[in-house]
Structure to design on (214 residues):
């Protein structure tokens, strides 16, 4: 099992010269943990996930990612993480299999067609493997994002409202996937206010909305 710790120290973020979205956030996660980040709309849940994933920079404070006793540079975070969120776009002109093959090339990993088809089966998309994604419902598109996450065999999963647009069967599929990844030592960070999603987590980080002006 790989050992890692991803941590935030006194992290703050603002998007203009006056208003902070996050202020002095301390956070950490290591292998095998499931952590839910909660808070009202505008409290900074999605912002924190993007900062932890290395997508956005902090205004103040720092993020560190230590993997097997080696510090990982931010430009290399993508090798270790996957990110699933309703607002992320798919290449909808392609079929699921085409999309998976393209992403494998982008990530510089081997495309395994048999494995890809098995992952599509897990998320009930195998019958649509050769159908353009543009024809999919919102729930099908959300499940497709999980199939893409599975391909990367990540050490950390960032899941922003992961069961948005999913029915009960879809929720159970996602829950089973999260618990399976946890059993393999993966760390999972959920941004959510959904009670069912929060019930999966071992630990909850509650963000308070920051309205302080400086």
């Amino acid at each position: 099992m790989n050992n890692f710790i991803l941590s935030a120290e006194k992290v703050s973020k603002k998007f203009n010269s006056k208003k902070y979205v996050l202020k002095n956030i301390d956070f950490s996660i290591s292998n095998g943990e499931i952590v839910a980040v909660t808070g009202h709309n505008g409290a900074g849940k999605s912002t924190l996930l993007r900062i932890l994933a290395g997508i956005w920079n902090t205004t103040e404070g720092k993020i560190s990612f230590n993997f097997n006793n080696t510090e990982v540079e931010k430009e290399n975070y993508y090798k270790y993480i996957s990110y699933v969120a309703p607002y992320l776009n798919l290449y909808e002109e392609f079929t699921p299999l085409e999309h998976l093959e393209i992403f494998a090339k982008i990530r510089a990993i081997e495309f395994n067609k048999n494995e890809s088809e098995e992952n599509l089966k897990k998320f009930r998309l195998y019958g649509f493997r050769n159908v353009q994604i543009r024809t999919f419902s919102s729930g099908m598109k959300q499940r497709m994002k999980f199939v893409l996450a599975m391909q990367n065999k990540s050490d950390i999963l960032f899941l922003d409202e992961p069961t948005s647009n999913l029915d009960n069967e879809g929720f159970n599929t996602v829950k089973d996937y999260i618990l399976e990844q946890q059993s393999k030592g993966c760390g999972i960070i959920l941004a959510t206010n959904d009670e069912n999603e929060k019930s999966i987590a071992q630990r909850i980080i509650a963000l308070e909305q920051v309205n302080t002006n400086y």
